[in-house]
Write a structure and sequence with these properties.
93 residues; alpha+beta; 2 strands
Amino acid sequence: MGGKTEREYGFTVRVGGRHSGINNRFNWDCYVVDGKLHYITPEECLQLQGFPADHYLAGSSSDRYRQVGNSVPTTVIREIGKSLISTGVFNLP
């Protein structure tokens, strides 16, 4: 997805609040893109979490949103791992 948005980011990807409306404080999945409402898809949620484009989630749309919402961004895990290795927490040969 490309385009100009009125909001740069959402606060979280969560199950509650889905399709709650653009002005609702619980809204996380709707953006105004190029003047039109756009609800992010589970695949776009995966991209926001740093998963590769070919990552596959099984189940219904609600199941896929839940799986993404329960995940941890891969970029965060990568940086935590780098930090642990650089501090010597792990004695790697």
